[in-house]
Write a structure and sequence with these properties.
alpha/beta, about 525 residues, six-stranded antiparallel β-sheet, 3 domains, Aminoglycoside 3'-phosphotransferase, Chain: A, domain 2, Rossmann fold
Amino acid sequence: MSEPVLSPMIADLLTPDRYSTSPVDIELLQTHISWVIIAGQQVYKIKKLVDFGFIDYSTLEKRHHYCLEELRLNRRLSRDVYLQVEPIVKRDDGFYYGEPGQVVDYAVVMRKLPEERMMKNLLAEGLLQPVHLQRLAEMLAEFYRQAAVIDDGSFGTLETVSFNIRENFEQTEKYLGKSLSENDYRRIIDFNEQFFQDHEDLFARRVAAGMIKECHGDLHMEHICFVNDHIDIYDCIEFNDRFRLIDVAADVAFLAMDLDYHDRYDLSAYFLREFGRFYQDEGGQELLPLYKCYRAYVRGKVISFLLDDPSLGEAERETAARRARRYFQLSTVYTYRLPTSLILVSGISGSGKSYLAGGLAAMSGFSWLRSDQLRKELIGMDVSEHRPDDFESGLYNPEMTRQTYEELVRQADPVLAAGGGVIIDATCLKSWQRQLFYDLAAKCKLPVYVVSCEAPWEVIAKWLRQREGEEDNISDADLKIARQQLAGRELPSPEEETQGYWIHHDSNVDLLNQLYSLMPRLS
């Protein structure tokens, strides 16, 4: 297994005596373009000597210039985080920060932000709440209102946007078969080219409307920190104007994409709704599919660059390939548009149907109708209240179940008639239940899909145990109920299968992989 290779300068700067604060702990991180040294409560960011065409740090003068730009630009959205640009010098006995000595490089010096308050870590710990996204949406809306407008046609045009996107395809061709599949590569290219053709005048309208601004350019969760009473957003794009002087929609699409990547399509949709409340921009919605596809692809690209970095070990390169592959798969998911239809997401309790239905609804914009919710609303019961009645008794007696399914049909009907799509989140284990929806779809002259969620029994049992006591769990079913559902379910007859499209769906994978598998079949 190959070992990472460090330059003498970086190796020297990992010793405590190179720092005036004599830090006890020093940690080295890196990206495809930077070395990041965390020394105590300060962070030193050093630009790598690279030239990818769109990033050129190949000379000392360029690295110094971009260090100064990084300081200037990032102070717009962070408070007391960016401290100074520090020269790195070579002396007889090695490399140091600050003069005297021959200046050989520069470091951007930052105050270390609390890791536990980073947006990505709040999400991982289950602590990221809608209120965080509301505050962030409001902050960004104010930032964009104050940002410089670029309306001279130099950025944001079809020519500029298409160049940026096509450039990615050229730069990733060498990763085909490594982190990017040939089929996904071709599909993403075709999607973008078709979008340019279908929306040729949209980009000019965006320029004229003043929606091209000096944005952040790299707005994802790793660059956002919720610190007590304020939010710090850092590490914006400083190295290339065409990636920062962009459409506001392209900026917010990055964060929405990042939430999607982490399987939080619900929070992604919520953030975009809140942003729309604080920043009026109806035209931006039309561009979101393109820009989310673009943003996911860019992340896949830059992580793939690590596959060529000799300073990384083999295990790190394998991890990078897996991460990049996931971003490319998400980019592919964005290329699909669901036709107006009725989708039944079915399966026994604990099979993951609500998890899938919620993600699919957030991704597609379809209405999401839940039997667990409507059943309780019909009798005036709070949806968060639990009533664990026995199988087919109490709240779940046959008559109440029939009323619930009829109400699902009643609510879905006007949505479908108005041209919207509907996702039904219900077990749909009986033929008569599914027949109600076949009849509705036939009346509306729309296709109906039955997505039958399937997972191993031990997985279903684990999920049922895990969701007990969860605040957002509105289901009353337990392991005993699930067994009875499984025993009493009615499989479709050959005649029934002709009334809709049946999809046997593996729900025993994460949500992105489910959508990556499912979207082509629904489209």
